[in-house]
């Protein structure tokens, strides 16, 4: 089943022609923004006569978005924008993305394509367990599911017992959930004596927002007795809906009528041939409020060569292997280690050294910050220590939008490195749990 068969199975040549037409329009559009007017001043649009000539345009990065906050990339008058979203995490200068009415409609349509591609139908009951708000995961799926016509339950994340109660009462058949939370939810089901195969009506799960392995997908499928589909997106492009798995579960179709794909070597910036792994770079082809040209997503993947059995012609990317930068994803929330450093180093009781650990606890990610105390505050009494730890936790929570565990330790007790300090220790893949 297709949402839009003509587009989804469009012959490759036709798709390329459409891309070129849209690319030219997008570049002309982008010139309306202060940022691109400046960056593209030496580029002759007339010369972009083929898709490969896109290489003449410089890359756009997250830093560019931050540096030109808030309106540097805006291409329409403010009264034409109807919504803004922001990348998850960080309360510092966020990356903000604007949408016109047409942008939201286009987003709804690609979301509907993704949902229908997995076999979900109008008759399904959809429980959306992703965060609503500035984060695009909740609202993106919400509008897509309503477009398909599913009964949509906008429950948001958390409160596992209530989630399960809704699933039982309304015979939820499709869910959208963080992979880590899906595993946690199963644990709560077990505690409640609920067997998903016997007691629930679940048949499809959409999982995304954070990297996960094929093994995790299979585990969720087995535990919840459900088919699980990988959903990829980023707020800079629109949010979820950029790429999604079909029922063959072998890579994610990236909607090439909406986005132009390049894979580059993250170090040299050189464009890599199809099939090689590198950083995904995307150009929007159908966005009005805030088109982005050659945007470096920071996500590592490759284009899977060859056609898919589902007959969709839009090429597939492999599941995301990691990041080309140091961005951490903690339960779906993006965090840069520098934000942590900036926050803790501004607190006087913190000394020179710190380490960021990421653990798994009850299947969910747990951020643990160990920081040495400043000599003049050490040893202090227990009450003081608790007070400082709480203060740091509070400040980090405000900055990161996730709550870490903070442990203050003796000055000089954390490892010191001769070369580059190893600040982040990711223990999620190991059998280590706290
Ligand atoms: P945000 O802009 O807050 O929605 O975050 C987008 C980022 O989340 C992407 O650039 C990826 O790093 C990550 N992400 C989203 N979906 C997936 C997925 N299915 N697998 C791995 N990482 C993902
Ligand atoms: Zn397919």
Walkthrough of the structure:
Helices cover 30% and strands 25% of the residues. With 434 residues, it is of the alpha/beta class. The protein folds into 2 domains: 1-325, 3-Layer(aba) Sandwich (Rossmann fold); 327-426, 2-Layer Sandwich (GMP Synthetase, Chain A, domain 3), CATH 3.30.300.30. A 9-stranded mixed β-sheet has the order 4-3-5-6-7-8-9-14-13, sandwiched between helices. A 4-stranded antiparallel β-sheet has the order 10-11-12-15. α8 packs parallel to α10 and α11 (337-345) crosses α12. The longest helix has 19 residues, at 12-30. It is globular and about 70 Å long. The mean pLDDT is 93. Zinc ion is lined by residues 246, 248, 253, 308, 310, 312.
Q: What characteristics describe this protein?
A:
Rossmann fold, 25% strand, 21 strands, GMP Synthetase, Chain A, domain 3, nine-stranded mixed beta sheet, alpha/beta, binds adenosine monophosphate, globular, 12 helices, binds zinc ion, four-stranded antiparallel beta sheet, 434 residues, 2 domains
Task: Give a quick summary of the entry.
The protein has 434 residues and is α/β, with parallel strands linked by helices.
Write the layout of secondary structure elements.
Blueprint: H1 5-8, H2 12-30, H3 34-39, H4 62-67, E1 81-86, E2 96-100, H5 101-117, E3 125-128, H6 136-148, E4 151-153, H7 160-170, E5 174-177, H8 179-191, H9 196-199, E6 204-208, H10 214-224, E7 227-234, E8 239-245, E9 252-254, E10 259-264, E11 278-284, E12 295-301, E13 303-304, E14 316-317, E15 322-323, E16 328-330, E17 333-335, H11 337-345, E18 350-361, E19 364-373, H12 382-400, E20 405-409, E21 424-426
Helix pairs in contact: 5-6, 8-10, 11-12
This protein binds adenosine monophosphate and zinc ion (ZN).
